[in-house]
Amino acid sequence: MIEPRSEAGDVLTDVVMRTFRLYGGFLEAAEVMTKPVGLTAAWWQVLGAVLKEPLSVSGIAREMGLTRQSVQRIADLLVDKGLAEYLPNPAHRRAKLFQPTGAGHTAVESLREAQYAWANRITASVGAEELRGALDVMNRLVANLDADRG
Questions:
Q1: Nearest CA to 84 among 28, 42, 115?
Q2: What range(s) does the HTH marR-type domain occupy (predicted)?
């Protein structure tokens, strides 16, 4: 039996398509910002996930909706470059915690000015309240996706 169409389902399809376009634009902008400091968008993404607290590679992957294997490759590269390190994980003997080193924090911090300028340009016609509303909807959709996965 085919599920009936719904207006919300049709709009969600449009949201998904625009999200793909946004993601592509965000990645392109991130590559431009990170290149001068010797990072890539992917490296920034993984380092950014652990700026506040160390996480396991699996934890980073879950948080970002990526595969553990892709995060593992980037994490190992960042460790090799001296931008991050693995720490013992008291909760799990084999799944080490991952965190930026001082050099990793410095690299991410050096992006702040460019990132703030970019964010201000991109949000010039969108207010903070509108963005908070969009973020709320995105958070609810992520929760629904997670629940749908089982």
A1: 42
A2: 9-143
54/81 Cα distance (integer angstroms): 18
DSSP for residue 91: T
DSSP-assigned states of every residue in 30-87? HHHHHGGGT--HHHHHHHHHTSSS-EEHHHHHHHHT--HHHHHHHHHHHHHTTSEEEE
Q: How buried is 119 (Cβ within 10 angstroms: 0-12 exposed, 13-18 middle, 19+ buried)? A: exposed
| Cα separation, 66 vs 58, whole angstroms | 9
Q: Is residue 142 part of a domain?
A: no
Sequence letter at residue 97: L
Full-model pTM: 0.86
Tell me: pLDDT of 125 over 90. yes
Backbone region of residue 65 per phi and psi (left: phi > 0; alpha: psi in -120 to 50; beta: other values)? left
What CATH number corresponds to the domain at position 53?
1.10.10.10
Q: Tell me the pLDDT tens digit for each residue of 98-121.
A: 999 999 999 999 999 999 999 999
Residue 140 lies in a domain: no
> What is the count of structural domains for the chain?
1
